[in-house]
Amino acid sequence: MAGRGIALYRGTDQACPYLAGQTAASAFVDPALSLTPAIYARLLAHGFRRSGSFVYRPLCPDCAECRAVRIPVDAFQPRRSHRRAWRASAPGLDVDPRPAAFDDQHFALYRRYLAARHPAGEMAGGGADDYCRFLLTDWGETVCVELRSDGRLLGVAVTDVVPGALSAVYTFFDPSQQGRSPGVLAILAQVELARRWNLRHLYLGYWIADCRKMRYKSDYRPLEVLVDAAWRRVGPGEPMPGGDRASRADPPPSAP
C-alpha cells in the first residue's frame, strides 16, 4: 500500500497487551491522509484496522502472531453451539442497525460492560468524548447494530461499512446477560446483515493463537486468514496457521 502513495509511520515499542513478555509496535497510516470507505476497504484487505480515526496494523519487532481474519459470509456455517445460542435468544430478539452517533443508552451500557469486563483497562474511566474518539470516525460509514431482547438493550456491535464488507470495530453488552452468549449473537447478527446487504466479508480484526481473548474468532468457519500477504481459507476441522485452538468445541456442522 505504501508504494501506491500511502505513507506509514511506525509507533513506539511497548509491552504487548495480548502476549506476556512480547514487545508490540504498530504501523500507522498517515493521519493527514484523506481516508474514505473505499480506501479503508483496501487497507482492511492488507491487514489494517482502525481505532477511532487512526488506521494501523501490527509491526512488532520479534513477533508475527497477530493475524487478520475475516468471515466469507456466503460460505459461513454456524457451529452447533452458535445455532443453540441463537435459538435460545430468538424469541423477542430484535436486531437493528442504526447510523452511528453518540447515544446515552449505548454509552451507559458501554460503561457497565467495561466496569465488569475490563475494570483496570485504560478505557474504563473514560467519558463521552473518549467513547466517541475510540468508536466513531468522521471519514467512514459506521452503524451501531443494536441487539434488543423484548425491548431491553442487550448489546451493541459497532460496525464499519465499506465496499464489499463489514468490519467489526467493538462489541459491548449487558454483563448480566453473559449467559445468553451476546458476543456470539453479535457476530451472527453482523454476518446476517452482511448477507442482507450483499457484502462478501465480515472482518473480525486480529486472531492470536496463544491469546484466550482472541481465540474465539477461529470458531467461525470457514475463516479467511491473512498469511504472507495472501488470504487463506480455513474450513471446519482444519488447523489455523500458526497453531490451532479452534476445533475444540463442536464438530463441523453437517448442514447449513
Walk me through what this model shows.
The chain is of the alpha+beta class and 256 residues long. 23% of the residues lie in helices and 30% in strands. The strands form 3 sheets. Strands 8-9-10-11-12-7-13-14 form an 8-stranded mixed beta sheet. Strands 1-4-6-5 form a 4-stranded antiparallel beta sheet. A hairpin with a 7-residue loop joins strand 2 and strand 3 (23-24). The relative contact order is 0.17.
Feature tags:
alpha+beta, 8-stranded mixed β-sheet, 4-stranded antiparallel β-sheet, 23% helix, disordered C terminus
Strand proportion, as a percent range, falls in: 25-35%
The strands making up the biggest β-sheet line up spatially as 8-9-10-11-12-7-13-14
Bin the helical content: 10-25%
Contiguous runs where pLDDT drops below 50 for at least 5 residues: 245-256
Please give the structural blueprint.
Blueprint (H helix, E strand, L loop, with lengths): L7 E3 L3 E2 L7 E2 L1 E4 L7 H9 L3 E3 L2 E5 L8 E6 L7 H10 L3 E7 L4 H14 L10 H8 L5 E9 L2 E11 L2 E9 L8 H15 L4 E7 L4 H4 L7 E5 L2 E5 L22
Parallel strand pairs: 11-12
Antiparallel strand pairs: 1-4, 2-3, 4-6, 5-6, 7-12, 7-13, 8-9, 9-10, 10-11, 13-14
In short:
With 256 residues, the protein is α+β, with helices and mostly antiparallel strands. Helices cover 23% and strands 30% of the residues.
